## 1
Amino acid sequence: MSSNKKYWKSVGELSQDNSSVVEALKHKEFVEEIPVDEFLGDDKTMESSSTTRRDFLKYVGFSTAAASLAACEGPVTKSIPYVVQPEQIIPGVANFYATSIANGYDFASILVKTREGRPIKIENNTMASTNGTANARVHASVLDLCDSLRLANPKKGEADISWTELEAEVIQKLKTLQASGKEIVLLTQTFASPSTAKLIAEFTEAYGNVRHVVYDAVSESAALDAFEKRYGVRALANYDFSKATTIVGVGADFLGDWQGGGYDCEYANGRIPQDGKMSRHIQFESNMTLSGANADKRVPLKPSEQKVVLAKLYSKITGTSVAGKLSPYLEDAVEKTASELNKAKGNAVLVCGLDDVEAQTVTLAINEALGSKAFDTKTPSMIRQGDDKAVSALVADMKAGKVGGIIMCGVNPMYTLPNANEFAEGLARTELSLTFTMKQDETALKTQYAAAAPHYLESWGDVEMKKGHYSLMQPTIRPLFDTKQFQDVLLALLGKTLTYHDYIKANWKDSILSGSKWGQALHDGVFVSEANDKTALIDPASDANAAARSLAATPMASGYELILYPKTGMGDGQQANNPWLQEFPDPLSRITWDNYLTVSEADAKDIGLYLAPSDFFTESSHEATGGLNGKYAKLTVNGASVTAPVIIQPGQAKGTFGLSFGYGKKEAMKIEMQTGVSAYPLYANFNAVQDVTIAPVDGRHEFAAVQLHNTLMGRGDIIKETTLEIFNTKKSSHWNPIPVVSLNHQETPVTDPRVDLWDEFDRSIGHHFQLSIDLNACTGCGACVIACHAENNVPVVGKEEIRRSRDMHWLRIDRYYSSEDTFEGDNEKKDGFSGLSGDNGSLGGFVDMEAPSANPQVAFQPIMCQHCNHAPCETVCPVAATSHGRQGQNHMAYNRCVGTRYCANNCPYKVRRFNWFLYNGNDEFDYFMNDDLGRMVLNPDVTVRSRGVMEKCSFCIQSTQAVILKAKREGRPVAKGEFNDACACSAACGSGAMRFGDVNEEGSPISELIKDDRAYHLLEHVGVKPNVVYQVKVRNTNEA
Amino acid sequence: MLLLQVIFITEYFSFMKKSYQNFEDNSTNNMKQVKYRKFSLRFLLTGLLFFLAISASLHAQDGDPDKGKALFNTNCAACHSLDKKMTGPALRKVEQRLADDQGLDREWLYAWIRNSAGLIKSGDAYANQVFNEYGGAAMTAFPQLSDEDLANILAYTAKEKEIKVISTPSGDDGIETDGGSGVSNNLILAALGILFALLAMGLYMVNKTLRRFAEANNLDLGPETNRKPLWKSFVENQFLILVTAIFFLLISGYYAYGFLMQVGVDQGYQPIQPIHFSHKIHAGDNEIDCKYCHSSARVSKASGIPSLNICMNCHKSIYEYNGATTAEYDKAFYDGEIKKLYAAVGWDDESQKYTGESSPVKWIRIHNLPDFAYFNHSQPVSVAGLQCQTCHGPVEEMEIMYQYSPLTMGWCINCHRETNIKVKDNGYYEKIHAELSKKYGVDKLTAAQMGGLECGKCHY
């Protein structure tokens, strides 16, 4: 050939100094010889081997054939009926029991769904009149019952001991202590239980020198002290946010766990615009919290500034003058807020989350001065009783050897106390130490006796959550292990033979029920006592003024301030071994399996904790796989240090950091669950706000985040929102326009049948299910996520898999930050782009928009399968595994699925999840589906999916079908509203954001909601006609 | 009485060629339910002898033992047996025994039966003795029983105990009918074989004769051509090979398909259960409603294997089996199975008390739907009102339970396609049925038209 063309395969060939590698590669496939001889050249070994290659192949062939033949044989399944079947149990039919959770951190009246005697799901008790509904942790608590690492029997040191021996030995020691006059201490969680209180009083009487110390791991002591001082009751003021039109939060995450939580339902009620009105919410805070995310106006500031803000608000409302200096920005915010509060007067309410008695006193005084209707001191909340001073005194006394014996219940001070070492020293000096615990935790390892306590689903109990509002706790399963509850042992220690059940019953009949029926109370789970003495107001004004002045004089923190907070998924950490909660994405950071230090972007750059979002050449916050990385920082408070990974949190006040409690637990935890770092060592004096020094530490932390893109990029049609003013004054076509597409060069609404590829089915016959999600009411709490997990046997995949974006949540709550100050600003910026480059070009503009603002607007959007009537997933499935039902549900036949994943690729909402592994039969995923105990919580009505199949939200078709079947069996039409609680998510949603139902049922809430002006479909322009409707988010920006 | 006997004997002889085995039960009125089988004459004669012996003793009583038996079974059998101490004492010859041992007459018995508590209260010595002997549980009073009723019952209790006839049916029992058709088939085959052999022999002879003729007539048949063997020409014909290969591939494909399609289909699965529970005896002979034991089928997805306390509702008093037996399953066998039940539930038959030591029965599950298919029994049972037999087959004839239907998806769907919805008296269907049937232009909707074929109705 005459061509001179030289073809080259690599850059190396082009260069003049042809390396030997290039030369070698011209002739051979590999540069170096394949070292075949190394494993085949040794003839001696090859010959001496008893298994030749041929033999090996024979064995392989035989075993494969044998295995496949054996697989043709069906397994023999045994079926073992009861010997005597309990009357109320019908195999295959669920029973519901009303009970209560009261684990010292979470308190709620709930219904427990049991199947064949196994509790499998927590639901809300709609008869309950106490605050709130079951949150994510309560929903997940059913899995704690089936924790394989629970303490199975009482222990004395390392050795097992029987209950009779334990009780005998403890009585012996108590008698000795009593004789020697030494003090006996009961260190317990908050029980809020009238019967337990009575029992402890009896115990105190019997043993004389007894001190009862109540200890909350995450303390509300300041608020309790302030309330006690002012109203004479050790309780917390109760708030009904539905009665407030102006809500001001100062460092109080009242949509989270502030003062025990449970305020989100009433808050959400007031957030839904009705008759052109909705509440206005202003939040002053340091960390970005759920409350701040839902606020109409969020003011980031340091905790020390919060105190001054509070004092100034007090002064502007009461007219007392206080000193104190604030930045002009804050002065302005305070001015406006005060005027709004003053305008709203009785319709306003202010809440505060500072661990400071003065701040709490001022808060009470402000609400009194406003005459707030939402502020309630007559039925105060009893669910926090802990006393910091008593705990500190106890540790000191124990260290001094003044305490003879200590009996603990529901607390784990070795993990939660900042000065755990001192506590351990003190523990060693006691003659008797006994702890009631479900786990062999940090404390149980240090005590002489570890008494195996039952889970609350195995126990009796009563709770007075609000004054006069009682709940009962009843067992829903026979104890799984050899456990005995604290109260039963106390009774035994008192030498009584009756059980705690009898004791409660007698106590209720004597002093609570006042003639009502015990059986009815047990059935309802709740009882409201009519007799409710009013709280007297003691000394209202004087100390508040002083407190406000003292607050105003708070010196501004010179350094950084750390705010410790309980994370939505983990609370105080007692449920840390719960895989559902570990994998629960934090509503704000969307990070699973971790806690972290939240730092503002500006501070991160100052300190050197910043990783650029995406950069090819330097270290990046994201890896090629999308996995999120972070740097480490070492925090030091009062000599105690903790090293934590760092994330950049938009909205974090400059000069502050946030770190959550509940992580870093090591004892009685599966290896995979030992995540994060413990914040408790930094919780000095039980104050959540600490002065802190910070230093970067080498290393990269790998996070497992389920959302990697944080902004909407000006796509205002994903989360449609408007302001109350526009909502009230303009037509819905202005703020909720129907998207248009081009048809013959004419703009045509996408709802027009002419632009549709598909013929429409008649969906007016029979049921047609739709789900409405109100973006105004959704606080992002995540209870629905866990409820969906529990109902639908959603597997837990672990941190590594989440990092690979293989999360399995059927329902996720997307969280978006605005890139400008508001989402509206994003939209305007995007619309204003002209050209590619330049100052106003889209190229640079979109890069800017990927970064959230320093104090962004936040929006939550729960997303599950949208059950499109013209579903794109259905048309691409090669095996017709996914198809549409007449009732509107998009079905998924797992056994038909071959795992091509075309459907997931064609889904515009990215809601389909692929089973990469057999999570229920793989030791690599040792979470809950892999042991017999954890499998007890599986829902027997829902298939446990296998490897290689797609899965997704089914609109809980098992429940809708069950409702239909029930109606058929009873020969009646489906009753009004019967479908409303069919979906696990809508049933769990206490705020009423999610409403499910049959749109063909006349007068059902859903049939109204889908016609609402605010209703829109997600990505409507795609034309897939989803069966999930969202309600436009309305923000109340009216500064009164 | 005599007339009855005559009729009976006539009937008896009219069934000379058949047999029945539960002689004791059927001595009077149970003729219709008996399964007749062939049996030897010797057995028949033995039976007849016994029958005559019983009928002789009948004359000694003034009550009617037949009516007495019926009354006994309705009123007394829950607590009393003739020969066995149960909740109450054994009652065989109770009248005579009382007269002999205690000197008590029939009037005392009447008083006791009608109001035992009163008798005990009156301080009657023997009444109190019995009362205490049986754990202080007073016998239910039967004031409604007339003198005649009681006389009848006592007549029944006065009967001699019948000696059990141990059935010894001959080995070919039950197979004979099948054997008959087998023989005739064989015969036809043999005859055909002989016919073909004769034909072949005939042809051969004809051939031979013709050759002989040819030879005799000096006809030249020509030399024997060296023809190619058949197989060789077959091998050389590629078309034929192709056709054969395709044929074999199709055949093997057909069988492979058949094999694969039955993998996991356990139609006819008939495992041996830890207790030999005969559905034939319970659902067939005794006509117990399926849902008496499988009660959860009405409301639940699971039909439910009855818990042992359900068994004890009846078996507390039914401690032995008195129905028809076969060589394989004789009375001793069935009684043994009842003993197994007692052991499992922890019932001490002697003291008539629960010992508290139970061991649940590990039944082998026969109908196994895969986990990914949801099926709820209450839909076909309570809503559609289908008979259990529709899917489970003639359970009332199954000595050992087996899987009657294939339980494949095709089988489910076929039924849904063919079965109309039971709309009557069901408020749920009213509106939707009216609208849908109008839409489809039919009078009655099938389950399929209601949406019963949608994947998600069973797979979630």
Note: The mean pLDDT of chain A is 89.
## 2
Amino acid sequence: MLQTQELQVNIGPQHPSTHGVFRMLVTVDGETVVDLKPVFGYLHRNHEQIAEANSYLQNMPYTDRLDYFNSMANNHAYAMAVERLAGIEVPERAEYIRVLMVELTRILNHASAVGFMINDMGAWQTPLAFGMREREKILDLFEMASGARLMCNYFRFGGVVRDLPPEFIPNLRELLRALPAYIDELERLLRDNEILLQRAIGIGILPPEVALSYGVSGPVLRGSGIPYDVRKAEPYSVYDRFDFDVPVGKVGDVYDRFLVRIEEMRQSKRIIEQVLEQLPDAKGGHINPKARQNVRPPVGDAYARIESPKGELGFYLVSDGSTRPYRYKVRAPSFINLTPLADMCRGYKVADIVVILGSIDIVMGEVDR
Amino acid sequence: MPEMTPAELRARLAEALPAALVEAEPLAITPPPAHGPQPGLFNPPDPVVRPDQLVAAALFVRDTLGYAYLSDIAVVDYLHAGCFELVYRFYHPSGGPGIVLRVRVPRDEPVVPSLTPHWPAANFHEREAFDLFGIEFAGHPYLRRIYMWDEFEGFPMRKDFPRQGDKYLGGESEG
């Protein structure tokens, strides 16, 4: 007599497509996913408690290690939170340099996210190299400005650590000339590949009202059709001076999330071009000379959030009047974007889990903290 | 873009849910130093909500005021004042600054009703708060440790958790 039964299968912790040590406890009925429980913590180091034992400035390089793809974005959110807490002004030129760096980060993050997704689908290595190609040039720019490629540690309270070197702008202009063709090429990798379309369209659908109720942010939320972008919703830094669009998806499947990322790369390029136009007129140096780095903020709390490439990144700080944060809380976008993972995978096949997870674009350094 | 100051939010809450608000005392975060300048008291302007009215207040914020994006739940351990404070942060999907609700529970009995059955966005925030601070979220469907392993004893983000020499790190070696 034939009978069927549900099976529990472990995907991870060591699995090439889980983007780090991440485990999913999947209940399957044949090939169909019935339930999924994400299991975290393999990379947990209690980042927040370590940060509470450090002084405010010592945490700046430590934030690099959260989402190690986007160290500039992490620096920006943390610097903003401390500046709000301590009441530090940032000169205009420094704000433009910050925006420039974070938008470059967005381009490199989205390019590698697309490369990694195609990698997850089984097209090993070659498409990933396409995703990484322009990333190298952006990392070269970061190295020029900050001295480091990945762990930039470039921001300081009241500005950035040093001004752009003279060779930075010509190299950036050269990169901007190459970018449109590169983004088109990356988009053709997505749009013109029959196998990829079969595996991405209609998979992992997250309807807009469900996305909102789960509190997801970033390209996952916008892929579901909700035009919520912190840069527009609550403009920080100098984002209110730029003209750019917020791309949204139509149905909220894996494919939409990637098209949103491709379009965001184009919008980031637009922002960088406007930065280059407005930068020469910007007042002030690269850092507020009156800003002390060993800050001792008054008692109180502050929250700052930015649109990091992966979603809303927020820092909540409470000061007790000493040189160390009394409470340091990271609102990590990758972590919260995993909340609807079970709902997104339910009813799809086991092989789709890998693609759906890739479309959320997580980094375990930030998920596990 | 809607904008609502903490005072306006307090007025709306007082009108709709008069039993929800509590008058919160300003907190001293650390014991007063023996000498030197005295640090100020921690007194944020946001409304503080009674724990048993939290769900009603959050759903009022979502359904009536339209702040349908629950962004963050942060827990702070005020050891000297003897309470935990939970900071709930809501945003409006059409933009604008967010609004904040605060809940204070005593350290010896940290029980807060869970938002997760009504609002799934709270799920991982609450599990993280349970794991690291030991806040009990009554009614949470799957309240288990999220970062630490299940057998771990203690709550590592509490201010009285030993920083050195606990049973997992150093101290007396087990051979």
Note: Residues 92-120 of chain A form the longest helix (29 residues).
## 3
Amino acid sequence: MKSLMTGNEALARGAWEAGCLVAAAYPGTPSTEILENLATYPEVYSEWSTNEKVALEVAAGAAIMGARSLAAMKHVGLNVAADPFFTMAYTGVNGGLVVISADDPGCHSSQNEQDNRNYAPFAKVAMVEPSDSQECKDFVIEAFELSERFDTPVLVRVTTRICHSKGIVELGERREAGVREYKKDVKKYVVVPAHARERHVVVEERLRSLREYSNASPLNRIEWADRGTGIIASGITYQHAREVFGDGASYLKLGFTHPLPDQTIERFAAGVDRLYVIEENDPYMETFVKSLGIDCIGKESIPACNELSPQIIRKSLLSDEPGPLYSVDTAVPARPPVLCAGCPHRGFFYALTKYKDVVAAGDIGCYTLGMAPPIGVTDSVICMGASISGAIGMAKAAERAGRKIKVFGLIGDSTFFHSGITGLIDAVYNRGNIAVAILDNRVTAMTGHQENPGTGVTLMGEVTTQVDIEGIVEAAGIKAGNIRIIDPYNLAETEKAVKEAYNSTEPFAIISRRECALLKDVQRRKRGYCLVVSDKCKKCKACMRPGCPAIAFKDGEVVIDASSCNGCTLCLQLCKFNAIVKVGE
Amino acid sequence: MVKSILLVGVGGQGTILTSKILSAGLVELGFDVKMSEIHGMSQRGGSVSTQIRYGDKVYSPSIGAGEADAVVAFEKVEAARWLPYLKRGGTLIVNDQEVYPLPVLIEKEKYPSDVLEALKSTVENVKVVAASSIASALGNARAQNIVLLGALVNALGLKDLDWERLVREHLPPRLHDLNVKALQAGLSL
């Protein structure tokens, strides 16, 4: 049977067909749908882990116990999970262990475009790179086989354009792999220095076997056609290259990309006149090709920044620019992403805009948009969890400079569970004079409403314990008198809490709690919307200051779009002339 | 021969569902199909795009500037923004709808009043569709995406397929009547 599938759907299907029994991930674009799809197969235990390190450790534990297991994450997630990743390379596995890294060339939804192919040689593990949905399915199955055959974790490296593109996939059946026998083996799984030194020798021997396999692997294939031009490519760039050069070139299509196949590359290079290495971001393959003493054209022509496309390759290698393009003279306004109408973050952010001497360290989530006008309160966003810990450093440095500022750390509920808790403990322990705001919208919203430890439901839909944020805050050592739990739809209450936090000289925490306005349940319960009473409106536009996308100034009137208004009443509370009313409740 | 179709709009307008139905139909018609959608931050009211390529054999899912045989804009300003992607002589289908972006709402930028005129005077092959009004008249403006699907299927000459069944397969039963009517309205444009 054939099906049109995204790369992520196909990766999940491949894991299922391969008999995977345990899968774990933390949501992150472009990887999120891998686990969402795996969770639809009842044979696979699937979980949202609290972060990527936990996810990889859950999968690693299951692999040690003998089950085929998988961890999936976005590229920066592998930084978080790097610790177990490097050491699992030493211990090896029992049941197969597959780690999927979904990279984001072009930073469609990410803070950097790091090239995680570099992790494979760094950790000394095997790596495969599918180039379309069919290969996503096939390569995951192969990755499980290789993991068990060579006793290594296998990195499956994909990119946004693979994850989120659909292609036709031939479906297969599930082959149960069972759970292998578990035998205690401390020399393998307890990496005290004496064992680790021995394991390192095993790792180097394994690399030699993997290199031999790479030269023989069906995942690395030569497609001979015109021998004037030879192209080495992997992943999506193979598809782009085929689009540009068609049968006017020969291809070395690499699917098993660590270790790279030295003999195959030498054979291919000897058979063509001119050799191009086409790859996104880093010169990962090019550096290796050059290390073999082979001359090739790569990054001197092809950009290291941003995603590639057939058009960019055509321009870089063939100096072929598109012809005259259509355009209109009309100035086109920008359309940046915005906080939604009724977003609970807006009320909290608005309260914070009152202070000109506040520096706010933000974090990763919808509320990253606290940096955008007209709110613009956020000063920095680095990585998951860096709001609280970054705020500590900012406050310490500002104290030493004698700067009179107050530092806030702004973090979401899921991000707090992911890596905010350690920062909070650090703030208490090291007496960081900061205010922490946990913007608790009761869901992992940015990536599309995933469950998290605060929601009381698991990825597989089971009801579970709701982890208590205020309990954690208090247990971390924030004094009970320095904790406020507020509803950001109540502006007076929010402003009061922000003021108290601002004035505090001790670690202070505000839990700003209100469900995401777009949650299905919230939408179902939604009652009423706001509208402007035009004869009372003085057109002062105070209601527009928080930048709600449901409010516009059109033809000389302030109007609220009833269909997009979610009835949060922030605008109503800002109106001094009672010109906004809520109706339809 | 490979055809490239670009669907552009504003997060929440239903571009993704439209491209799902279109791709499913193209597969049934026996084409190789690749469809690429980029989502993430753009879902929060930002500019969104879906790329669909179909033919005997499709390699890359990506469409570059000047390469789209058809561009379907679910919003007027998005038509102007993505216009350079339209191939010379290609077809532009544009929904006669305005969705103000935030910079316009907060009066930092202006929403242009002359977009449709500018598009009509620049592109030979423009079809303006009042999809939102048509869908409203049928019962719900949200069905505008299916009106546009109908108009696109028509423009691509792909009417020889039971698109009504595909629309039904992709939507819950309570929305079938509305969307089948929306499809018919689009197909007849």
Note: The mean pLDDT of chain B is 94.
